[in-house]
């Protein structure tokens, strides 16, 4: 990354695809990622779970390798490989000693272009994914986020679970998965990133060969996220749990909005660490929750500000009242300069620590190229946060933490939705 001691080299293609490398001569390992601008938000209702299903299937064997041979090809070198699917991206990634980068690329590229989608494998993996869905259903902290997403993004792919539902996964067979892959896994949707001891020209040449074997189209865009809501929403999921899981969400800014830096600092001030206001009030001062925190989700044309907590069901009403009171405090006045400085130091310190990992650097390249079309220098990244003023955080708090944009989801054995809705109306 130029300006901060790290240099990123980029090769761009006319259709939007790209190769990004960061050569770190002092490292003995390399991390490689094949990223596709393909995620859950591209799915039609009847395709819910397709992107995640395909991620699984690409590990099940190719025309050159069995599933076991795929894993042995990398793990036999002392490396590892994995993948993940998000709302707007799928990444297949691997790490090993730098001299094995050619094998890593060959294995991942083979998975992308030569996967067999054997009928028996599709049937078996469908059952595996159904078990994965059951696992999520048994995790209240995941279930409450699914309920919140459905509230915040009604009748939209962003509001559906990435793994799909048992019903939608049951409808996905080999023809549907192959059709989805041909439609979206295109040359223009591919971004290749590598960090460690790596030669850019070599990775770019390999990528050109891979691109030639993909459909020659640019990446697709998902359905628009839609307009913000007009009033607070509440959803209660009844489940016999020992603890109530609470999630409070507000629609926020799209990924490229410059206010995202102030929003992230607001998140740190409110709930990203043990020094944050919500942690101090809800856990330390009142002892109402073991865990409480905040986070920010950003998409191409929208975003979300989230607050999550695990509570004794007897304390839900009081805890919610205190949470709303803290949010109101941030809407009423700017944060203190000393607190804002600590938040900036936290964000930048976490960033610097993350850059010690070649895998994190590979992820940084892919996430920024897919999300923004470029990668900021270290100096630019620090400059954006350093420039945020207290009044900007205050303005963002008033815009985002709006009463009409509040969404509350609970997973609990008992609740009174009408009382909770009344509490939400008090945020004003």
List the helices and strands and how they pair.
Blueprint: E1 8-12, E2 18-23, E3 29-36, H1 50-57, H2 67-75, E4 80-85, E5 90-97, H3 101-114, H4 119-137, H5 140-152, H6 166-171, H7 174-184, E6 190-196, H8 200-211, E7 233-238, E8 244-252, H9 260-271, H10 277-285, E9 289-299, E10 302-311, H11 316-332, H12 337-354, H13 358-372, H14 378-386, H15 390-400, E11 406-412, H16 417-425
Parallel strand pairs: 2-6, 7-11
Antiparallel strand pairs: 1-2, 3-5, 3-6, 4-5, 8-10, 8-11, 9-10
Helix pairs in contact: 1-7, 9-12, 9-15, 10-11, 11-15, 11-16
What's the quick description here?
This protein is of the alpha+beta class and 428 residues long.
Account of the protein in words:
The chain has a six-stranded mixed β-sheet with strand order 1-2-6-3-5-4, sandwiched between helices. It has a five-stranded mixed β-sheet with strand order 7-11-8-10-9, with helices on both faces. 44% of the residues are buried. It is globular. Helix 10 packs antiparallel against helix 11 (316-332) and helix 11 runs parallel beside helix 16. The model is unreliable at 1-5 (pLDDT under 50). The chain has helices spanning 50-57, 67-75, 101-114, 119-137, 140-152, 166-171, 174-184, 200-211, 260-271, 277-285, 316-332, 337-354, 358-372, 378-386, 390-400, 417-425; strands at residues 8-12, 18-23, 29-36, 80-85, 90-97, 190-196, 233-238, 244-252, 289-299, 302-311, 406-412. Helix content is 45%, strand content 19%. With 428 residues, the protein is of the alpha+beta class. It folds into two domains: 8-211, Cytochrome Bc1 Complex, Chain A, domain 1 (2-Layer Sandwich); 233-425, Cytochrome Bc1 Complex, Chain A, domain 1 (2-Layer Sandwich). The protein contains 16 helices and eleven strands.
